[in-house]
Specification:
DUF8076 domain-containing protein; DUF8076; 9 strands; 3 helices; single chain; alpha/beta
């Protein structure tokens, strides 16, 4: 499986990209409409969300979704690879399952994107930009 145009959510990198950014660096660059070299690997999205107070996660996801939608830093054919330390879960909607302090935490990562990610394999899903 290879990286696809759009937002790839993966538990194992599917491609070697020329650029790697933390989630903070990535969203800061998008918010400021700075150029982002694509394809790009983005790390620590799962950590950001699991470290966010549970009652505030929806608000954080909405803010990040707004940044993705409004940014002109990425073209529709650019590829972003979000590498997460967890497992993809597809119940009624797309989520990731991560272990946090010995407990399973389910994060609604699908809410980050305008289009819910479509599962390509057990370790790879993609949402179009």
């Amino acid at each position: 499986m290879s990286i696809q145009p759009g937002f790839n959510v993966v538990t194992e990198p599917v491609a070697e990209t020329g650029s790697e950014l933390t989630v903070f660096e990535f969203f800061r660059a998008l918010k400021q409409d700075k150029e982002v070299d694509a394809p790009v690997t983005v790390t620590h999205l799962d950590r950001l969300l699991v470290d966010t107070i549970a009652d505030e996660r929806d608000e954080v996801l909405a803010e990040l979704r707004g940044v993705l939608r409004q940014s002109r830093s990425l073209d529709s054919m650019d590829a972003v690879q979000f590498v997460i330390d967890g497992r993809l879960v597809e119940d009624a909607y797309f989520r990731i399952r991560v272990e946090y302090r010995g407990d399973a935490v389910y994060l609604d990562v699908g809410e980050l994107f305008v289009e819910e990610p479509k599962r390509l394999s057990p370790t790879h899903a993609v949402a179009r930009k």
